[in-house]
# Entry
Amino acid sequence: MWGDLPGENPIDADLAIREPPVILLPVEVLEGQTIPNTVVEFLAPADVIVLGYHVLPEQTPTEQASMQFEDRAQEAVDDIAQSFIDAGGDPETRVVFTHDREQTIDRIAAELGATAILLPNPTGEISEVLVPIRGAIDGGRLADLVATLLAGGTGHVTLWGIAAGEGSEFDAESAVDRAAERLRGRGLPAEQITTETTTAMLQIHDIVDRSDEADIIVMGEGRESLLAVLLGEDAERVAEGAVAPVLVVRDRDPDAEVADADENTADADSHPDADDRE
# Structure
């Protein structure tokens, strides 16, 4: 079912980048959080929005915090943005003060139509990209993102299909084959792509355990939001271990999905034999 969500026309799967990826980078700037230069250089080919945020105590009004801290927060965000400019990027910036981190990030990501959200962790030079595929995901977005970030370089991507076990309806082998096909169609050389499959009952834990083998992980939200998982119990393991940063590919906004689905239906009607979805 890889790529079997609304939003990608399989007829055009062999074309180049179809949707330039937009990456949201939430950064807790007043706590000194920043983005490693190696991550900046890797993400610079995409459209980047640096979101500086600060979580407030429930009793503190956001207006008060804005008056007190906005200049300092904006300065820190601008410093991060400058690193992207130095790497050849053209970033946008935002600063928010919030009582609910997750809700604010989700809202802004939806407003901006973000392709992916970065969960930062320290890393060195980025050459190995791990893409765990566990089920239905927006294949077009994932392919556009990975192909954009690896374009013109020597980086390598491992497409890792993970089935839940016996009786699972998810065909991991077909999923990674489809993923590889889409990446090749977007111009990524075959020698930079490896595919493999495994079976795992505790998929999130296996991904976290393997994260130190990769320089960065790119994956979908899945049935249970990866963002929620990593900010819960697994977040402690991620934060305390020498693990890779994670790019979480977002599902499309439902309104956008409806519009894209209508367009895809019209295209499919004009090419009745071209629909190769699984």
